[in-house]
Structures are given as C-alpha cells and as structure tokens.
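re: ur question from yesterday

yeah so i grabbed the chain u mentioned. its 138 aa long if i counted rite. heres the sequnce exactly as i have it in my notes:
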Amino acid sequence: MAKFFSPPDNSDVQTVVDTASVLHVSEFDVFRLAYEKWFGHPAAHTEIDKDFTQYMNREIVPMWVRAFTRQVRRLSGAGLLNLREFGIEPAPSATYRTALLGGMAFALIVMVVVLLVYFAVQGTEFVAATGCRLPPCY
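ran it thru and got these structure tokens back, copy pasting raw so excuse formatting
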C-alpha cells in the first residue's frame, strides 16, 4: 500500500542543510557561496532568488549547489575545511569579559521576572484583602 502524505526523501535538501550547518551560515548563503564558486563572481540577490524559491517550494537543488555541497562535505570529512577560504569569518570565541557580561544580563533578566511576579502576587493579595480597588464597587 502506498503511503500518502509522506515527506519526500530528498537527500539534496538534507545536504544543503548540512552544509549550512557546517559553514554556520543560512541556506540562502549556501546558494550565494555556491553561485560565487561556480560562476566566479558574486551573485546579486535577484540572480539566486528564482533558484532559491524553487529550492524552498519544490525542493529542487541546482547542480552548482550540489557540486558546492559535495566539495564542502569532502573537505569537512578530510578535516581540511577552512571557513576563510569561502569568505566566512568564524565567530569569535567567548572571552572572560563577554561571558561575565552575558551572566550579568541573565541575572538582571531573572531579577526583573522575579520582581514582576512578586508585585503581581502582592497586588492580588492587596485587592483580595481590601475588597474592590476601583469604582464602581457593588
């Protein structure tokens, strides 16, 4: 019996997603990088919009994107992948200062949420104890 509504088995789409993950870029950027590698010049957004729309709507991956994803997979598997060769700057590693700043921001957010909950509870208890706070009170 045939399966209805089963997702299509499209390994090309999965390869594009995997490449985007390995390169730490979006799928659109994979198309942009593949275009530049295949055609030898950077692409304007309008040049890849049609192909990317086909990819998003119909899961059609152009041959130049497939060639690029195979190259990235091969380099990654061999441990030779250098993001700078593709014009991608790796994300800076966290420093003590940025980690401390992130921890302080998290603590501030937690304190604000705790205070909001505290004042909400106090407000409802005050209204419950005194009765009606705003007219008309029946």
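noticed a couple things. Residues 1-6 have pLDDT under 50 and may be disordered. also Residues 37 and 83 are 14 Å apart (CA to CA).
anyway ttyl
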